[in-house]
Design a protein that fits this description.
The complex is a heterotetramer, with two copies of chain A (193 residues) and two copies of chain B (151 residues). Chain A is an alpha+beta fold and 193 residues long. Chain A has four helices and eight strands; from the N terminus they run βββαββββαβαα. Chain A has a six-stranded antiparallel β-sheet, covered by helices on one side. Classes of the chains: A alpha+beta (193), B alpha+beta (151). The structure holds adenosine-5'-triphosphate (ATP) (2 copies) and magnesium ion (2 copies).
């Protein structure tokens, strides 16, 4: 499964609609200090369900709604949508791709038909979305339909996006791995186990 | 899950020995359970010895060496349990050119199974991008995305 | 000492407004006593608004903006109570070229009264050095100093 | 007053004698990762009296003695000497240089003879030194004579080098100023007051 497209609208320093497409391989985001690069990362972790405003550098979740600038008024809401491609259909087993070892498969169940342990597979594209209004109301969406946070969470768990702790390294945080306490390092390993 | 942890620990440790020596061009590294008697709860220590140097407390390593060691560990975990994508925000900031070169080579080795999204100010890192987005703020306070297609 | 603190606070605050706008090319900043009723013990908050942006919690600033704001405060304290020398270890790491340019200009404005010792990987920063020392480790684990006289 | 020369011998990654001279203005130290640049900064803060091994990235103070490499054995001691020039003679008033406001002078005492508030002044060069032996023994030196830590401390206080908190910004620490607690920022100002 892979990321396909990201839409940002009203989130942090993006008052206007903005869109990024992701291909395979490496996407680089560049630009001067303060122009909004880390805000793009925040948008991705936010739509994937980040619940802590502090992890997004805010004091309260409302801080992630565009707050205005010299020339612009604040927006009334923030919306981010992330399109995912080749997502394993919820309820089906995840494919064993060469080189990709999925260790949470039940080893007692042997791979079914197909070579290289490839299981017959149903995948689809799916778009998860999240909105926050200044009133405090917030919505989660799957393919444009309002749903609960838990539905988004389940979808992500099944598609292998559930473990976040080491798929994102935030700015300035690389040093913390070595200065963290032994117990915290253990939980890094436990999360992967 | 005690076995799952033990299995994960063993594999990640083995991966770490490899990623570290690849990023450092030598040396040795590993993970150690602090309390061997109590594997169920024991914390984990990181052992790291750059090539030619004596083994010391990792805190004595330089800023760049610590970043490379932490990256080696992250990639070791990643190879055990790959995520479809990986977001790295300016992790090349403390690195000199030679280390950025080795970091970038390791990314290139992993990118066929993983989408990498990198934020960087560094030219060497930008060069391996298949796709480049520039973010600008011509209007103060308002971010704008510009796509720069490469390859 | 209550007056000494009040005097120091007032001057450093005034300096900070100037150093910030110099480093950012505009905007506003200041220090605020959180508890105005209890000036003897009150903690201090930092207010920082880059040019063209709205005032928000400083935590929302970018990595580079935070570094520039912190530098503005350090230099504000420094102008109030100069130390004969100042050791700065890679504080240009999170900065883009334009910001390194402004940081380097500010250093040049202060160097007649203060000796600056800078550790850096950045060419623009190296260019303002009157004297350059290279540290090498040709023999692994053994540092060697090489003097490179400039000017 | 200014720094004039630094001698490092057996400290951290410097098993052999190494020397830096400091002129007025800006001195830059460059080199690849791990080659010893921050160790030079550590040598300066150590000879100025740093008491915490943790601030020097060590677990115990013995960690700052050269620990050996592939080809070299550990040394038995570490020594750093810092030569200071134009140090106000202890007991004399500090000169008021143009542009340098020394706010701890007693404002009730007017500047004596000389223009621009320059006081007749005695200054000298002085060298402070520090040694640590693997046995744990440690020595402080002024101009090669063994003295107490307190004598070094007094000398530095009189010469304006007593406040360290903001004359040194360690690698990776610039961010802490903004993320520190309000009380910690207050003590930064108090130290300068
Ligand atoms: N809710 C908001 N409304 C408007 N602007 C915001 C909001 N939240 C954050 N910003 C602005 O976004 C900017 C920070 O953006 P970001 O952290 O993405 O920068 P960056 O491109 O990563 O820079 P650097 O290279 O310095 O890390 C700050 O100037 C901040 O004021
Ligand atoms: N007591 C010691 N004996 C021998 N080597 C030591 C000792 N203490 C530290 N070192 C070595 O010094 C090196 C770190 O040096 P330093 O922190 O000065 O690097 P640096 O030049 O600042 O690098 P960077 O650019 O990555 O910050 C480490 O590799 C460490 O092993
Ligand atoms: Mg950033
Ligand atoms: Mg360093």
């Amino acid at each position: 499964m892979r990321l396909s497209r990201l839409h940002i609208n009203g989130f942090k320093s993006f008052p206007d609609r903005a869109e990024l497409s992701f291909d395979d391989g490496v996407t680089a985001i560049v630009g001067p200090n303060g122009c909004g690069k880390s805000n793009v990362v925040d948008a991705i972790t936010w739509v994937l369900g980040e619940q802590s405003a502090k992890s997004l550098r805010g004091e309260r979740m409302e801080d992630i709604i565009f707050n205005g600038s010299d020339a612009r008024k604040p927006t009334q809401s923030a919306e981010v949508r992330l399109r995912l491609a080749n997502v394993a259909q919820v309820g089906m087993t995840v494919p064993v791709e060469p080189g990709l070892e999925i260790v949470d498969l039940d080893p007692a169940v042997p791979p079914a038909e197909g070579e290289n342990g490839q299981l017959p597979l149903v995948t689809r594209d799916v778009e998860i979305g999240r909105r926050l209004y200044r009133s405090g109301e917030s919505e989660y969406l799957i393919d444009g339909e309002v749903c609960r946070l838990r539905d988004v969470h389940d979808l992500l768990m099944d598609s292998g996006l559930g473990v976040k702790a080491y798929a994102v390294i935030e700015q300035g945080k690389i040093g913390q791995i070595l200065s963290s306490r032994p117990a915290e390092r253990r939980s890094l390993i436990e999360e992967a186990a | 899950t005690r076995e799952r942890f033990a299995e994960a620990f063993a594999q990640i440790n083995a991966n770490f020995e490899v990623t570290f020596t690849t990023l450092f061009g030598g040396g040795k590294a590993g993970l150690v359970l602090i309390d061997q008697e109590n594997q169920v709860e024991s914390g984990i220590d990181i052992i790291a010895q750059p090539p030619g140097k004596r083994l010391q407390n990792v805190q004595l390593l330089s800023g760049g060496e610590k970043a490379m060691t932490a990256m080696a560990l992250m990639f070791a975990i990643f190879k055990f349990r790959p995520s479809p994508f990986c977001l790295l925000d300016e992790i090349d900031a403390p690195l000199d050119d030679a280390n950025i070169g080795r970091f970038v080579e390791m990314l290139q080795g992993m990118q066929s199974h993983t989408q990498f999204i990198l934020i960087t100010h560094n030219r060497k890192t930008m060069e391996i991008a298949d796709r480049l987005y520039g973010v600008t703020m011509e209007e103060p306070g308002v971010s704008k995305l510009i796509s720069v297609q490469m390859n």
